[in-house]
Amino acid sequence: MHTDLVAALDIGGTKIAGALVDGQGRILVRAQRPTPAREDGDTVMRAVEQVLGELTGSPLWGRATAVGIGSAGPVDRSAGTVSPVNVPGWRDYPLVGRVRAAAGDLPVELIGDGVAITAAEHWQGAARGHDNALCMVVSTGVGGGLVLGGRLHAGPTGNAGHIGHISVDLDGDLCPCGSHGCVERIASGPNIARRALENGWRPGPDGDTSAAAVAAAARTGDPVAVASFERAAQALAAGIAATATLVEIDIAVIGGGVGKAGDVLFAPLRKALSAYATLSFVRHLTVAPAQMGTDAGLVGAAAAALARRTDAAAAGV
């Protein structure tokens, strides 16, 4: 058995998680810090260095051969920089160089968080065994990634598969990204809740106005809540069908908080997909909930680092 390990970092607006991961995807050592997202860039980097410091201090660190990073985006894999929307102190921040320095000059692979979750689902989760897959994270935003021909397809900058910003409503609302009618503007959790409230849904005594509360109301048959999830499902179906038509995926995996809504989302999604995915080569597309849970970002970052190491070995580097 290969005894080498890779280090993985999962960097988001709330937490910075790190792990040492073996070739079977098992997490052997963990470290975590809250993200000081409102602080300056170097303060955020210090939290990353503290997480790495815990990993490098482990007796297992000597077996680490590469570092994989899954980061909130946008990321630029080709430049080694990140500019996470929810970490304003990092703009074109040279994360790869800083991590390499802190990790004893090990090779570093950077991908976006949606691509990392895709890598995890393909390696260990719902997309396992599928050579062509789209994986989506539907929560506060909508992200995603692609597996094509059995390999993670991150694209030159590491953002390929970012389905949240496909426009599915030409005359739709202005999205914060600058486009109109994006999948994210319709299907993200906050937008599901916003639309339900605008159309007359009212929260219960606890005052919870989250998408999870709207999902609970939809389960009891509240027509406004049901309609808001149906609209989200329609947007997701249009984006999935467009992707399938372009690159011939055979499964779409949906994770994130909204993905946990169950049949409230998946029943109208499957129905809408049959209306959008009409061509013979996309008609057999399946939709499944994600399986990897909260460790997906770490496992996916590790998968990317392992793939890089395998590619380098094959190239004789």
UniProtKB/TrEMBL annotation:
Gene3D superfamilies linked to this entry: 3.30.420.40
Keywords: Kinase, Transferase
Highest taxon of source: Bacteria
Enzyme Commission number(s): 2.7.1.2
Xref: InterPro entries: ATPase_NBD, ROK, ROK_cs
Similarity-based family: Belongs to the ROK (NagC/XylR) family.
Name of the protein this chain belongs to: Glucokinase
Gene, per the UniProt record: glkA_3
